[in-house]
Amino acid sequence: MLARKGLLPDGFLLARLAENQNQPNRSRSRAQRARFITKTGSCNVAHKNIREQGRFLQDVFTTMVDLKWQHSLLIFTSAFLCSWMLFAMIWWLVAFAHGDLEPRDPNGEPGPVPCVTAIHSFTSAFLFSIEVQVTIGFGGRMVTEECPLAITVLIIQNILGLIINAVMLGCVFMKTAQANRRAETLIFSRNAVIAPRNGRPTFMFRVGDLRKSMIISATIQLQVIRRTVTSEGEVIPVCQLDIQVENPLRSNGIFLVSPLIISHTMERSSPLYELSAQSLASEDLEIIVILEGVVETTGITMQARTSYIPEEILWGRRFVSIITEEDGRYCVDYSKFGNTVPVRMSSLSAKELDQTRGVQEGTSDVQLQGWGLVRAGRGGFRRGGRACESSAPQPWYAQSEKSQPQVEQKGQKKTVKLEVIGRQVDDALGDMSD
């Protein structure tokens, strides 16, 4: 419209249209990109076309616990109402077969003893069924010794009522004591960051526990979920790759007494080794965080989950410190839990940084030649050898290496060859004896 009115040149408008067409639609890609794990920790997976629905009935208790509260309450209420109605019908049939429902003359002779007293209709039978199952016992209706069948029905209804109560109480207890309730007080930072740490690009996020009761044997597990294609052309839509968490003990165990920053170094063995600032926006990956542990107060194993997609990973930023020491104790300021500050960082990936530094793939350490123990005299050994010629810094043991002993003879320096363990004695030892 602006081009038609002459407010903008046609060339500028066509250039903008071509630029917008070449650039990917970020809003559309974000809307279509699905998460495997939501920020709250629930699995974003829909199960469809399940033909064997009967397998869920083989484990009724777990199925009841996994249901939502409204569905569980509806099932419990229906179970009680159905049992009351069923036994009300049975009590009414017992009374009808015994003749207790026939009208009697109040001024006449008393009739036979009824099976259940004070049952005159289906409504009174329904009330008696409720009194039997919930053991209320108002005292107006009761079973007599006249009908053994009524005593048998009374026993069966009591047993069935106890089973329904036990199942209901067990399901309610398990639903209220589920481990995911404890996970509500475990918080993760909204965003993850990538910042240099010890000279290497590092992926980091923060986790904290709001309760004073600790999580025993807490462990952190990281996984990268991405779409991959094998060498045979097979497309794997959800490929899970484990990520090693940085820990001096080489284990994923953590001591979650205060908020911690969990880090992962983007080295050669990392799935994020080729990730750069430019490719981060277009990467189709998701980093899943799984925290497992045992609740100290209940002893129940719990699990908290979250995930980070490329839009939630900040490049060139790090978390601010939130722990201070005040009055002889450590204080945590949770108002700064997710705050980050920018840092100076290259936009290149870890792989590109290694290539610019001259680190070739497949070689990470300095190769030593002839390094080992050599004989230094009777009853003792010392380290010796020769390092290959390289501009890389020598290891600590190379710096302490002493030069080989030399013997001056007639103004010339003669190098003495020492015997390497496992080899034959060189003829040069004979020359040294001369």
UniProtKB/TrEMBL annotation:
Family: Belongs to the inward rectifier-type potassium channel (TC 1.A.2.1) family.
Natural source organism: Mastacembelus armatus (zig-zag eel)
Protein name per Swiss-Prot or TrEMBL: Potassium inwardly rectifying channel subfamily J member 11, like
Transmembrane domains' residue ranges: 73-94, 149-173
Catalytic activity line of the entry: K(+)(in) = K(+)(out)
Bias (Polar residues) ranges: 400-409
Recorded topology in the membrane: Multi-pass membrane protein
Region span, Disordered: 384-415
Gene Ontology terms: cellular component: monoatomic ion channel complex; plasma membrane
Keywords tagged on the record: Ion channel, Ion transport, Membrane, Phosphoprotein, Potassium, Potassium transport, Transmembrane, Transmembrane helix, Transport, Voltage-gated channel
Potassium channel inwardly rectifying transmembrane domain span: 37-178
GO terms of biological process kind: nervous system development; potassium ion import across plasma membrane; regulation of monoatomic ion transmembrane transport
PANTHER family for this protein: INWARD RECTIFIER POTASSIUM CHANNEL, KIR6.3 PROTEIN
GO MF, one example: inward rectifier potassium channel activity
Matches recorded under InterPro entries: Ig_E-set, IRK_C, K_chnl_inward-rec_Kir, K_chnl_inward-rec_Kir_cyto, Kir_TM
Superkingdom per UniProt: Eukaryota
UniProt keyword annotation of Phosphoprotein present: yes
Site (Role in the control of polyamine-mediated channel gating and in the blocking by intracellular magnesium): 165
UniProt cross-references to Gene3D superfamilies, sorted A to Z: 1.10.287.70, G protein-activated inward rectifier potassium channel 1
Record's subcellular location: Membrane
Segments forming domain Inward rectifier potassium channel C-terminal: 186-356
